[in-house]
Amino acid sequence: MKKSAAFPYPFLFLFLLIKVIAFRVLIFDTKSLVSILLIEFPMWALLLSLVLMAVKKRVWLAVWIYNFLVSVIFFTVTLYIRYYSTIPSYYDLQQTTQSGSVGRTIVMLSNPFDFLFFLDAVLVIILARKWAAPKQKWPLKYAAVALALIGATTTTYALQQPIVDVSYFAKENGYIQSQVVQMYHRSNETAHASFAKLSPKQLEALKGNEYVEMDQQKGFGLAKDRHLFVIQVESLQNFVIGKSVNGQEITPNLNKLLEESAYFSNVFQQIGAGTTSDAEWIANTGLYPQGMIPTVNSLNGEEVPSLPRTLQTYGYGSATYHADDVTFWNRDVLYPVLGYDEVYSNEEIPNIKPVGFGPADEVVFDFAAKKLPKQLVKYDRIYANIVTVTSHTPFVMPEEMQHLDLPAEYEDMYIGNYLQSVRYADEQIGAFIEELKDQGLYDTSLIAIFGDHSGMHGSLVTEEDQALIEDFIGHPYTLKDQFTVPLLFTGGNLFNGIQMERLGGQVDIMPTILALLGIEHETPMMGHNLFHYEKNLLGMRYYMPGGSFIQSEQIYKAPGAKLPEVLYDMKSMGTRGKNSETKKHIRDTDTLLNYGDLLLEPYLKD
Question: For the purposes of burial, counting CB atoms within 10 Å of the CB of 280, is it exposed (0-12), middle (13-18) or buried (19 or more)?
Fold first, then answer.
């Protein structure tokens, strides 16, 4: 078939412009065409120009590959922001090689309209059959120079701006520019340049407390010389505790355990892009994670002062149990950095009763329980860190593992699947507690149980799910409901049904554990002993726009890619106006996060 004359260049750029406009409107709700033409489009058009100038043969193939790659990026960013409510960095996009474990979630996040991003790839194939390839002409070189000048100007301007929130930064400066600035900051370690060291007294003052030496704090030494078990529960949110549906408790075993526990019901997740692995990092170091980059992916291998290492000096042997590939989220680097004596992953834990990522939680708990007798002979005291997996999105459980008889409206709903998976996890926790009692360990142990992060978030939570959650909890599903995770401490003859509503964060888990064990940590931590301090200030970076904070009386959500800033009252979750206290908390949060970066810096790659 004889082809028509060479296809005109301008139409290729027009196709790209239409796709960029769709991307900006969908992701950032951008309404300014001028902003798109001057900030976002020039960088993508420049890359296309370079492709066209560099390729002499098979031009249509090069154009198709470029358009397809841009489509993949736009498609991935769209799904990512639906689930995490934030823009992914170049580092996050590298994690797509690990997406096989969450394939069903990706399917659930997408809708048919998303695939329109690939429409131009189909169009290029059609054009290539009818038109000769575009030929390089002098106007293209001039266009490339003009685009390069515009791109250099916008990127230079972006490099001068601080990244407080990546999504908002990308909206204001362009997606490609935001990635360039992140890489520049990462290589030059200038993302948070105003580092300031804080004394323990200054740190507590930022949170609104008067510092007290640890050995003088409430609860210090209450669980001295006890074994330690830390159970990190996948996707466990606080709103399910004590709740029932159809007359059935969602967490009957945890509810019963509360009668002999100290339960903190106002503890917020503080994870970043590393999700579950970030929770492991926070709980075992008392330090903030990086935020936009998974902390485990940046570790340089340097040994960190951690919960396992501190406990080792007091005769504890440590072991961690996680029924997933140890290389997932670079745990093969994380665990040696934390200093565990024994590491058990899917290589050691039997691959039976598989659900989602790997073996069901009952297999993991049973495996851990069988290891305890040998460890009790080997070590004076033991620290076991158990990370559950089964209650992971998309929360689809085999029928034989479903313990709830849900009302018809919950069937096949995201919230219904979630409640089933949490009920299953609760059953396994209860069985493990009974196993500890049977082995005579319950009365000689301190047991900490906490949720790693939210499960009910992102676009997977439909309007129907929202209505069911509101009916389930008795009020609208708020930011507070989404981000609070249960934290409880238990063990024989330690507590008698204490419930505390004081604000806490995951950085407070390790300091509180050490205080109860009567052990002091030699290096600084970002958290504090929840039994002693009544006020708190928590910095948030990932699931909330950068610059956000959670404080004992207020929750501040900084402006993001689409939504303006908003300030909530902690108790009522009603909106309120900013005041001088809010502005002070914003400044103090910046100081807090900078100090957290300073403590983290020695353990990160250059």
Answer: buried
CA-to-CA distance for 528 and 502, rounded, in angstroms?
A: 12
Residue 267: closest CA among 559, 536, 596: 536
- Cα-based angle 569, 561, 195 (whole degrees, multiple of 5): 75
Q: Do the beta carbons of residue 529 and residue 218 sit within 8 Å?
A: yes
DSSP β-ladder status, 244-245 and 575-576 = unpaired
Percent helix / strand / coil, the chain, rounded to 5: 50, 15, 35
Where do the DSSP E strands lie in 57-147?
Answer: 131-132
Whether residue 570 contacts residue 552, with contact meaning beta carbons closer than 8 Å, is answered with yes
In the numeric block, the tokens 């063990």 are attached to 491
Q: At 126, list the tokens.
A: 């059609």
Question: Could you say which DSSP state residue 183 is in?
Answer: H
Instruction: Quote the CA–CA distance of 501 and 486 in Å, as a whole number.
Output: 11
CB 420 within 8 Å of CB 397: yes
Class (C level, CATH) for 234-533: alpha beta
Return all residues near 109 (Cβ < 8 A) that are at least 6 apart: 79, 82, 83, 458, 459, 460
Q: Confirm whether pTM is higher than 0.90.
A: no
Q: Are 320 and 294 in contact (CB under 8 A)?
A: no
Mention every residue, 6+ apart, whose C-beta is less than 8 A from residue 159: 180, 181, 184
Report the C-alpha gap between 513 and 509 in whole angstroms. 6
- Cβ–Cβ under 8 Å, residues 387 and 232: yes
With contact defined as beta carbons under 8 Å apart, do 47 and 12 qualify?
Answer: no
Alpha helices, H only, 213-274: 252-257
Preceding omega of 394 cis (within 30 degrees of 0)? yes
Return the biggest CA–CA distance within the chain: 89
Place of tokens 């052990």: 519
What sign does the CA torsion over 234, 238, 242, 244 have? negative
Q: Are 563 and 86 in contact (CB under 8 A)?
A: no
Phi, psi (rounded to 5 degrees) for 566: -150, 145
Q: Quote the CA–CA distance of 222 and 446 in Å, as a whole number.
A: 10
Q: Give per-10-residue mean pLDDT for the chain (606 aa).
A: 70 91 88 87 90 86 92 88 74 52 60 85 86 72 85 85 76 87 66 66 97 97 98 98 97 98 98 93 96 88 97 97 89 96 95 88 98 96 97 93 96 96 98 98 98 91 96 96 98 96 98 98 96 96 88 92 88 91 92 94 91
* CA 600 to the chain's CA centroid: 17
DSSP 266: E
Q: What's the CA gap between 393 and 401, in Å, rounded?
A: 16
The full set of domain ranges for the chain reads: 4-188, 234-533
Count CB neighbours of 126 within 10 A: 9
